[in-house]
Amino acid sequence: MKATMLMLAGIVLLHITTIILLLVATIDNAWWITDSASTDLWGRWELTNSVWHYTNLKNYPEEYLQTVQATSVLACIFAILALFVFLAQLFTLPKGQRFTFTGILQLIACLCIMIAASIYTAELHSNETVGGYGHSYVLAWISFVLTFLLAITYLVLRKKIGCYPKKSTCNLYK
Question: Parallel, antiparallel, or unpaired for β 37-39 and 32-33?
């Protein structure tokens, strides 16, 4: 029973970590960096006379940029929704059932962040020779891997016995 609780806590901790990584990747301003500029999904920060100035992303194809923005936000929404659905399913799912709906939501989040990072790679900076991908871009790809692993985990995981709000134990097995 202790191992089951540790596994459950590990899954929830990994899920929360993934959500944090997705949010940081979507919000932070380091998808593309140079010595004098830092670009995120929403704008560009340029260093002029030792002061950072915010500018709009004018030189990017709008359809690709909006797709990357939308899929990044959707990845965050689906990952957060999947966590709430998982917690709800702990108390409502019948014995022996798989966490299929949670796994599907997590798989959608995985696909969304993969689409965002892939389009960003292929379309937004493919011709630039100065600069490189920043930590937000790397976090997006790490989030992709973690959301994929969680999706597989949720699709394989089965509920062993009932979890009830008044009891402090929930036993799960694979």
Answer: antiparallel
Helix H, strand E, coil C: the string for the chain is CHHHHHHHHHHHHHHHHHHHHHHHHHHCCCCEECCCEEECCCCEEEEECCEEEEECCCCCCHHHHHHHHHHHHHHHHHHHHHHHHHHHHHHHCCCCCECHHHHHHHHHHHHHHHHHHHHHHHHHCCCCCCCEECHHHHHHHHHHHHHHHHHHHHHHCEECCCCCCCCCCCCEEC
Bridge partners (DSSP) of residue 159 are 172
Strand partners, 98: 158
Question: Which candidate, 113, 110, 109, places its Cα nearest to that of 31?
Answer: 113
Query: pTM, whole model, 2 decimals?
Result: 0.85
Residue 31 near residue 137 (C-beta atoms within 8 A): yes
pLDDT in tens, 48-67: 988 989 988 888 888 999 99
Cβ-based neighbours of 8, under 8 Å, separated by 6 or more: 90, 170, 172
Residue indicated by tokens 């929360």: 16
Output the pLDDT for position 6: 86
